What we know:
Blueprint: H1 23-32, E1 47-48, H2 60-68, H3 77-90, E2 94-98, H4 101-108, E3 118-121, H5 126-134, E4 138-141, H6 162-172, E5 177-183, H7 196-209, E6 213-216, H8 220-230, H9 239-248, E7 252-256, E8 267-271, H10 275-288, H11 299-312, H12 315-335, E9 347-351, H13 352-355, H14 365-377, E10 379-380, E11 382-384, H15 386-389, E12 405-409, H16 417-432, E13 440-444, E14 455-458
Parallel strand pairs: 1-10, 3-4, 3-5, 5-6, 6-7
Antiparallel strand pairs: 2-8, 7-8, 9-12, 11-12, 13-14
Helix pairs in contact: 1-14, 2-11, 3-11, 4-10, 6-7, 8-9, 12-16, 14-16
Amino acid sequence: xxxxxxxxxxxxxxxxxxxxxxxxxxxxxxxxxxxxxxxxxxxxxxxxxxxxxxxxxxxxxxxxxxxxxxxxxxxxxxxxxxxxxxxxxxxxxxxxxxxxxxxxxxxxxxxxxxxxxxxxxxxxxxxxxxxxxxxxxxxxxxxxxxxxxxxxxxxxxxxxxxxxxxxxxxxxxxxxxxxxxxxxxxxxxxxxxxxxxxxxxxxxxxxxxxxxxxxxxxxxxxxxxxxxxxxxxxxxxxxxxxxxxxxxxxxxxxxxxxxxxxxxxxxxxxxxxxxxxxxxxxxxxxxxxxxxxxxxxxxxxxxxxxxxxxxxxxxxxxxxxxxxxxxxxxxxxxxxxxxxxxxxxxxxxxxxxxxxxxxxxxxxxxxxxxxxxxxxxxxxxxxxxxxxxxxxxxxxxxxxxxxxxxxxxxxxxxxxxxxxxxxxxxxxxxxxxxxxxxxxxxxxxxxxxxxxxxxxxxxx
Length: 460
Ligand SMILES: *Cc1c(COP(=O)(O)O)cnc(C)c1O
C-alpha cells in the first residue's frame, strides 16, 4: 500500500554537505571501527540515524534567537522567556532549565527516591533507570503486554499496564514506591504512544496510594499527535490542548529537550505546584548545573529552547514528522520487512530477528543489520537488542532481550524523501541476501554500557 510522503512544511536556507564513500571504503572503515558503529567518524557516514537526540535542525527563528540570547548570570531575559513558554504550554507553576534530560533526573530523583524505595514506569529509558539506581532505589518496568510483540498493531503500545501497576504497588507496599514515571512516547518500546485515558487511570492509582507521578517528557509532542490521530475524544483538539490535558494528570516532568523541542542541547524540569519541592530543586540545580536562571545552559540556548517548545507542537510539523516514519514503514510493509508496528514517533525499529532467523540472540542480529546498513548505503543505526542489553551482572552471562531491533532514529527536519528511499532500498537489498549475513562475537568489552565501546568480529 503506497503512502504519500508528507511534503516538508519548510524550505531549506542552509545546507551541510555529506559524502558517500565507496562500498569498498565502507567495508574497510567498519572493519577498522571493530564493527562498532559508535567508533565510526561522523564524516564517514552518509545518513546518520544513530539517534534523534540533539541531531535536529534549528529554524531561522531559533538561530535568530541565538543572537538575542541574554547571557546575564542571574535573571536573564531569555530565562523568563523560557519560563513563560513552559508555563503556557504545560500549565505548570515552576519551570527549571537544566543542561539535558539526565541532568533533570539527577536533580529531581534523589529528592524522591533512595535506598529501599522503588520507582515504577511503563518503561524506563536507560539514563532514567540509571538515575533511579544511583539514588539507591530500584526501577521496575510495567508496560502493557502487546508492546512486547512487534507484529501486534495496537494504537497505544506505550501504555502502562494499570492492573499490574496497582498489584505491584500493593506487593511492594505503597510507602516504598517513591515515584511513578510515564515515558511519553515510550522510547524503549519503539517510540510507542501513551493514551490520555491511560494517563488518567495511572494518575488515579497514584492518587489513591499517595505516590507522585512524573512524566518523562522527551517526546511529548509526538505523543500528542498520536493521541489526536488515535484517541476519539481528542480528534478535534489542538496539540497544545492535548499536551495540557496530558500534563494536568502528573505532578512533575523531566524532559530531554534534545528531542521534540528541536534543539541540540537542553533539558527542563517542570513542577506543577509543590513550592517546597521547588525550593529543593533550586538547591540541587545550583550545586549540579549552575544558577537557577541558566541551569547549565547559555542564554542563547535558553532562547532557542523557548522558541523550540512552540515549533515542536506545530501540527503541520508533526504531520510531516510522523509522516516520514509512516512513509518508510509502508515501504517495508510492501517488501515484507518486519518492524515494531504500528511505527512509532521518532524512528523505525526493524525486527532483525525476523530478517535473520539463522542468527541467534547471542550473535547479535540487530548489530549485524546495523553493520550491513552501513556497508550497503553508508547508513548509521544502532542495535536495540541483546548486544545493547549486555551481560547478567551476577553470572556474567549474555542476557536475552525481548526484542532484536535495529533502530533507524530520524533527526528532525534533516533528511528528505530521497534519503528515505535510500533507507528503504538498502533494507530491501539486505533482505535479499539475508541468509548470507553472519552473526558477530565480541572480542573486547568494558564492564558497563558496553555497546558504546565494544569490539566485534564476524563469525566465519
Ligand atoms: C533522551 C532521553 C532521556 C535522557 O536525556 P538526555 O538529554 O540524553 O540526557 C531520558 N528519557 C528519555 C525517554 C529519553 O529519550
